[in-house]
Specification:
The complex is a heterodimer. By secondary structure, chain A is mostly helical. Helices cover 76% and strands 1% of the residues of chain A. The mean pLDDT of chain A is 86. Chain B is mostly helical. Chain B is 75% helix and 3% strand. Chain B has helices at residues 6-19, 24-54, 83-102, 110-129, 133-154, 159-186, 199-203, 209-226, 235-242, 245-270, 272-299, 303-324, 327-358, 369-372, 374-388, 394-407, 412-439, 457-475, 478-495, and strands spanning 62-70, 75-81. In chain B, strands 1-2 form a two-stranded antiparallel ribbon. Classes of the chains: A mainly alpha, B mainly alpha. At the A-B interface, helix 16, helix 17 and helix 19 of A face strand 1, helix 5 and helix 6 of B.
Chain lengths: 467, 496
């Protein structure tokens, strides 16, 4: 429980300090919040007891703690990347404390979500994670796009919550319990239960923006401020994928055929449609939004076999995905903050004046595309290997063809930065120390994770297979 | 440190040094020094290898070392070489070094150019020195991606189109290849805990024939695209003609050999039963490659396109020989890889040098160059003669082995295919002699002002190194083919 309590403490401290600042001094909260969060992230790595409390409603094990730490690092990077943006647009917010508090609150919700041991905690976690995000998306209330995105998100989120709740009520009605351990024992080939599974799957799929539940994604991603977009597409997505794996492995393992058919179909759809839409995007935020939809499709290749190594591959992939996607978003955020430019055409000739940022962007995109020697290659390779081990060769082939398609649009950005020229490329951008640190952490993560095989072996030793 | 790891360490250190250099003199000197060292080291490896063999080491692979990487998947980075991979490593070192000499005067972003070029070469070295499929695949992709940047930034003509086409076709091929590799991995052992990526382990695995039939086409086509297998060769003419000189040299000279090597080492060696069953399809395709490439070269007017199509034809010959599955033909295929690597690198180097002086690659606009640049002219002739198979040069040795080996098959299908393939020799002679006649001999075309001046010192060295290697193989092929035949034995035994 330490992670959640720490987050609540950080949130409350930031909120109280925010009360004590005046309009002139409100930017001083930025470094304080970042340092507080860093302390929280470091404390998260200290050894901690695992187990169950509240009669199994909440439980932790090594793999959930690992995931929480990864999410902490991700949010820390997002804070670093948003410092400059917060300072520049001070006039748009009443207070900076709210920004930090809401993110931390939502993160606490995600921590509860991935630790949940019954459907009540699962639902509370989902809501606690989602509702603050809607506020965050609309935080730039002066911009109509931001407000519109907030409304879109809250409406679709409400719908998906309703569907999930309906699924949960069916589960309770047919099994008489909401605890994962008991539900899984009573779960079988009952058609009501299968319906419940499909509803719950749809609710979570909405959070991951699996096709066909992805329609809200692009608009919300484009309308939201960039740091929130990266939060949505990295942290929120990673936690939802993680809880989906837990649900599939712990609760719904009794119906492998239906589960695998659904996973197979949605995986193919998600990869393909995400890719095809990403090809046509000009706005970098929309571009990354669709590319992250496609990325989620690959994850299912790890889950589909229900094996322990597949689970490990998924967690490993998510870990890499955090660094690669945040690297790409960090560059987009820095450029957008300094120049207001967000289109791919604006990136023409970026390398000339901003070589370091172009290189970080290239590394991140290669990692997303799965090109060696950066980490994304290993992440994808292991997902594919764990699917191939279970005999899903055709699915792997479809996935690898999709990797090639995705390479095409990632190369378009690289082409814009390195090959295309324009008369007035973006001027040299002097980033502040926070942005630089954030990008450096991402680049280091992307380069290092693949080479240290022990990271994967460590994850594999902590995960479990379908029972 | 394991002796093979130096092949990766030297280029990586060179790249690292290049990052801290800050003028053009330093870039090219450190690049040339690093790759020169690599060349010397690869020759040193030849001595080590010969010494090892003559001291009675009869292992299939020597200098084997294992580095545990991902225990959970049993991924072990395993290095090891035999005569086949060693000769390709030496070829790579020669072509990379001469490539850097040829790009001595790169003006646009020289630092990035040399770094990308050396990263590409690192991928190739890594590919040839590993014997586990995971690392092999990793290095394969590592070699393909810098190509996009190299052609896109430093290329000419419709470079963006060519770069994208090349990258996507090769990565698409690697999609098939990846599925094939994962298939080999999955069936490498009946015990799920002992699955292995190691080629030597998989070779002992007895994969069921049904499974082989499914994966053989994937692996063969996956590597075959890189070896310009018809009808998936179309990236090659566009890519080669748009690439800057050194990149064309490396690509046609070395990268296409990764395709041939992969077909031999992975597709044929690991999936022999399916190879025997399905070879006929690919024999037809490679025969088409050989003849089509040669005719394509006749029809072209651009020097680089001519050479690119001739590469399609010659690389088709490599795959054709591999599919013949006997000792003479396989020996010929490896010789052809090395011989073609050297002479196509020489060709592309010369075309680059001529283009620098005439500012055109259209053969209709040039003539009588022998009068103003005799050194380059003579070199071009030698390259041409090697290409059309003149005895005494490497091309002859390779082709005679391939065709004799192919004709050893008594059935009419193989013999007809061989006869058709042999006809390419005549077509090759036509386009080589036509270009030599038009370009070098005849009256000097006065209308077009040429920058006079023969080869500079760096260009002379590059040409001399390549020509000496071509002649050395042509005059004394036995020292190479003896070693090759020994290393080919395990593969041949699987294919009998």
């Amino acid at each position: 429980m330490r992670h959640e309590l720490m987050l609540v403490a950080v949130g409350v401290i930031v909120l109280i300090m925010d009360l004590m600042t005046s309009a002139e001094t409100k930017h001083r909260i930025i470094p304080v919040a970042i340092v507080l969060f860093l302390v929280n992230t470091i404390i998260g790595f200290l050894p901690i007891e695992t187990g169950k409390i509240f009669g199994g409603m909440y439980n932790t094990d090594d793999i959930t703690i690992l995931m929480k730490n990864a999410m902490n690092i991700g949010v820390f990077i997002i804070f670093l990347q948003s410092a400059e943006w917060l300072r520049r647009h001070e006039d748009r917010f009443n207070s900076h404390g709210a920004y930090f508090f809401i993110i931390v609150a939502s993160l606490a919700g995600m921590d509860y979500l991935i630790s949940s041991g019954d459907f009540l905690m699962f639902f509370i976690g989902t809501e606690l994670a989602t509702i603050p995000i809607a506020a965050l998306v609309a935080i730039e209330k002066a911009r109509s796009k931001s407000a519109e995105a907030g409304v879109k998100l809250i409406l679709s989120a409400a719908l998906s919550s309703g569907i999930t709740l309906f699924g949960i009520s069916l589960i309770y009605g047919t099994t008489g319990s909401i605890y994962f351990a008991e539900v899984s024992k009573a779960f079988g080939n009952n058609s009501l239960q299968i319906l419940a599974f499909i509803f719950i799957f749809a609710g979570v799929a909405f959070k991951i923006s699996i096709v066909p539940f992805h329609l809200w994604t692009a608009d919300v991603y484009e309308g939201a401020p960039i740091s929130i977009t990266s939060y949505l597409s990295v942290i929120s997505k990673a936690s939802a994928i993680f809880i989906l794996v837990i649900l599939l492995y712990k609760v719904f393992y009794a119906i492998p055929d239906i589960r695998n058919n659904i996973l197979y179909a949605t995986s193919v759809l998600t990869m393909t449609i995400g890719n095809l839409f990403a090809i046509r995007q000009q706005n970098m935020k929309r571009f990354l939004a669709f590319s992250s939809i496609a990325q989620a499709g690959f994850v299912f290749l790890g889950i589909i076999g229900g094996t322990q190594i597949g689970f490990a591959a998924v967690v490993y992939f998510l870990l890499i995905y955090v660094f690669s996607n945040l690297g790409a978003f960090g560059v987009v955020a820095a450029i957008s903050c300094a120049t207001g430019k967000e289109n791919m055409d604006d990136y023409n000739g970026l390398y000339k004046n901003n070589p370091k940022m172009s290189l970080v962007m290239m590394l991140s995109l290669f990692s997303l595309a799965g090109i060696p020697p950066v980490a994304g290659f290993f992440g994808k390779f292991f997902l594919f290997t764990s699917a191939a081990k279970e005999g899903y060769f055709i699915l792997v082939l479809i996935a690898v063809v999709n990797v090639t398609i995705s390479l095409y649009y990632y190369l378009l950005v690289i082409k814009a930065m390195f090959i295309n020229e324009q008369e007035n490329p973006i001027e040299r951008i002097d980033n502040d120390i926070y942005t630089k640190l954030g990008l450096a952490i991402c680049a280091a993560g992307i380069l290092a994770i693949g080479f240290f095989g022990s990271i994967f072996d460590f994850i594999n030793s902590k995960t479990f297979g379908a029972m | 440190m394991n002796s093979l790891l130096w092949l990766l360490a030297i280029p990586l250190v060179t790249v690292f040094v290049l990052m801290f250099c800050n003028d053009r003199r330093q870039y090219r000197l450190s690049a040339a020094f690093g790759m020169g060292l690599q060349l010397i080291y690869s020759f040193y490896l030849v001595f080590r290898y010969t010494a090892e063999r003559s001291s009675g080491n009869t292992e299939q692979m020597v200098f084997m070392h294992e580095y545990r990487w991902f225990e959970s998947f049993n991924i072990i980075f395993t290095t090891g070489i035999d005569a086949i991979s060693l000769s390709l490593i030496v070829l790579t070192a020669i072509v990379t070094f001469t490539g850097i000499l040829v790009s001595w005067n790169t003006e646009k972003l020289p630092k990035e150019f040399f770094i990308s070029l050396i990263v590409l070469a690192t991928g190739v070295f890594g590919f040839f020195m590993t014997i586990d499929l995971f690392t092999m695949f990793l290095f394969y992709e590592l070699a393909v991606i810098p190509m996009y940047i190299l052609i896109g930034i430093w290329g000419s003509g419709k470079k963006e189109y060519a770069a994208m086409k090349l990258t996507l076709m090769l990565m698409g091929a690697s999609a098939l290849l990846l599925v094939g590799i994962l298939g080999l991995y999955t069936f490498s052992s009946p015990d799920a805990n002992l699955l292995s990526f190691n080629i030597l382990d998989i070779a002992n695995a007895n994969i069921p024939v049904d499974t082989q039939r499914f994966f053989f086409p994937m692996v063969f086509i996956g590597f075959g695209v890189l070896g310009a297998l018809f009808p998936l060769h179309t990236w090659s003419p566009d890519g080669h003609s748009s690439a800057p000189t050194a990149v064309s040299m490396l690509h046609a000279g070395v990268l296409m050999k990764m395709g041939g090597y992969g077909c031999l080492r992975v597709a044929m060696y690991l999936l022999p039963e399916a190879a025997k069953e399905l070879a006929w399809i690919f024999i037809i395709l490679t025969t088409i490659s050989i003849v089509y490439g040669a005719f394509g070269a006749i029809a072209q007017k651009d020097l680089k396109y001519i050479n690119a199509y001739s590469s399609v034809s010659h690389c088709g010959l490599v795959l054709f020989a591999i599919l013949m599955m006997n000792q003479t033909a396989l020996n010929g295929s490896v010789l052809q890889m090395i011989s073609h690597g050297l002479m196509t690198a020489l060709f592309f180097a010369l075309i680059g040098m001529i283009y620098e002086r005439t500012h055109t690659r259209d053969i209709r606009l040039m003539g009588g160059l022998m009068k103003i640049m005799p050194f380059l002219g003579v070199c071009y002739m030698i390259a041409g003669f090697a290409s059309l198979g003149l005895p005494g040069l490497s091309g002859f040795v390779a082709e005679i082995n391939v065709f004799v080996g192919a004709f050893m098959h008594p059935d009419s299908f193989h013999r007809v295919a061989t006869v058709i393939a042999v006809s390419s020799i005549v077509i090759t002679a036509v386009y080589i002699l036509r270009v030599v006649g038009k370009l070098l001999l005849g009256p000097l075309d006065e209308e077009h002002a040429y920058e006079t001046g023969d080869a500079r010192w760096n260009e002379r060295w590059a040409n001399v190194i390549l020509i000496v290697s071509i002649a050395a193989i042509g005059i004394a092929p036995f020292w190479l083919s003896d070693a090759l035949i020994k290393s080919l034995q395990p593969i041949i035994q699987k294919l009998q």
